[in-house]
Amino acid sequence: ELQQILTLPQSTVSQHLHKMRSHKVLAHERKGTEVFYRVDDEKVKQTVYILIR
């Protein structure tokens, strides 16, 4: 779904997600064939919250 929303190649999205996971910005959970991501960095959470207000 994320790849379709961003209109980027799947490989590009995967690379960016991997980098964010390796820098502890995102956490992920696999359920079957799906992977769910969540923001795992408090400063990033606060920034996103401010931006969407």
TrEMBL record:
Q: Origin, by domain of life? A: Bacteria
- Output the InterPro entries linked to this UniProt entry: ArsR-like_HTH, HTH_ArsR_DNA-bd_dom, WH-like_DNA-bd_sf, WH_DNA-bd_sf
Name the PROSITE patterns on file. HTH_ARSR_2
Tell me, what is one Gene Ontology molecular-function annotation carried by this entry? DNA binding
According to the entry, every stretch annotated as the HTH arsR-type domain falls at 1-53
Signal sequence, start to end: none
**What is the official name of this protein in its record?**
Transcriptional regulator
Q: Which UniProt keywords apply?
A: DNA-binding
